[in-house]
Prior knowledge:
The protein is of the alpha/beta class. It has helices at 13-25, 67-74, 95-106, 124-138; strands spanning 2-7, 30-34, 49-53, 82-89, 110-111, 116-119.
Amino acid sequence: MKIALVYYSGTGNTEAMANAIEDELKGKADVDIIDPAVFGSGDISAYDAFAFGCPAMGSEVLEEDVFEPMFASIEGLLSGKKILLFGSYGWGDGEWMRNWEERCLADGAILTSAPVTANEAPDDEAIEALKKAADSLIA
């Protein structure tokens, strides 16, 4: 199984979450870590599943300069695709993730687990949730 792990991280918190996913999938799947600045619609067919990570930005939205444009360009191709959403936040109540999840479901994507969020750096509970979520991509 080939998985695209595409994430944006401003402070390192979402990167730490991505690292936990990558560590969990080592030896279980072929994982490519991809910068959202270079990932696009032409890459979708090369992967069996996707893990997308983005922190909450501004008034609880996806990062607007790189991640949002990339995601908007591919979301029409996510119908029937297995995906996992993850990200960190420092304020608010996770509205950005709920909105993102609803958007993906409306696109017809198959969320293999509940999205995983971490308030600031991921704690042990978030790491365990990320491991379970990563395994759900390959189940």
